[in-house]
Amino acid sequence: MERIGFLLSITFLLVLQYSSVGTVGVAETNITTDQSALLALKSHITSYPHNILFNWSTTTSVCNWVGVTCGARHLRVASLNLSYMGLTGTIPPHLGNLSFLVELLFINNSFHGTLPKELAYLRRLKLISFRYNNFMGSIPLWFGSFPKLQSIDLRGNQFSGSIPAIIFNLSALQVINLSNNHQEVYQEK
């Protein structure tokens, strides 16, 4: 009987040890995913004055990078604020891998091109502001798929076409600013 109890104790300890190792591995993979997404963004930035993104490297913790704030609970990227940094570039699809992102702010830079459809994966977003950049194309329909989105600010870009009506159905949305673009006003028939 003692032998069975001893074997059960050993088995329990081994399971506990390996499940702890597995949990750490998952956390490292997740922050590694965030790091890869941000390094992809850095590679799409063609100009950053004064080497402002100097610490965006594998030798520095992602949570200590300029413009990055990590959440206290999961230690994942929760806010990306690259506003007023004089950056020029495009947004890569990899940014859609920042699954814990709540705020995305690229205010007053020179980002250009279209917004990648992979940004639709950022389901926790509450605030998105790309104001005063040079984004173009139509405002994507996937803007209507953010259940927690409270504020959209896309003013001062080159967006054109009609404004997707689905944006106005977001239940949490409190603020929307699409001025100084080239959109047509949506009218319900």
From TrEMBL:
Family: Belongs to the RLP family.
Protein localization: Membrane
Leucine-rich repeat-containing N-terminal plant-type domain span: 33-70
Record has NADP as a keyword: no
Protein's recorded name: PREDICTED: probable
GO CC term, one of those recorded: membrane
Membrane topology per record: Single-pass type I membrane protein
PANTHER family: DNA DAMAGE-REPAIR/TOLERATION PROTEIN DRT100, L DOMAIN-LIKE PROTEIN
Main location group: membrane
Source organism of the structure: Prunus dulcis
InterPro entries referenced in this protein's UniProt entry, alphabetically: DNA_repair-toleration, Leu-rich_rpt, LRR_dom_sf, LRR_N_plant-typ
Signal sequence bounds: 1-22
Stored Gene3D superfamilies: Ribonuclease Inhibitor
Keyword Disulfide bond: no
Alphabetized UniProt keyword annotations: Glycoprotein, Leucine-rich repeat, Membrane, Repeat, Signal, Transmembrane, Transmembrane helix
SUPFAM superfamilies in UniProt: L domain-like
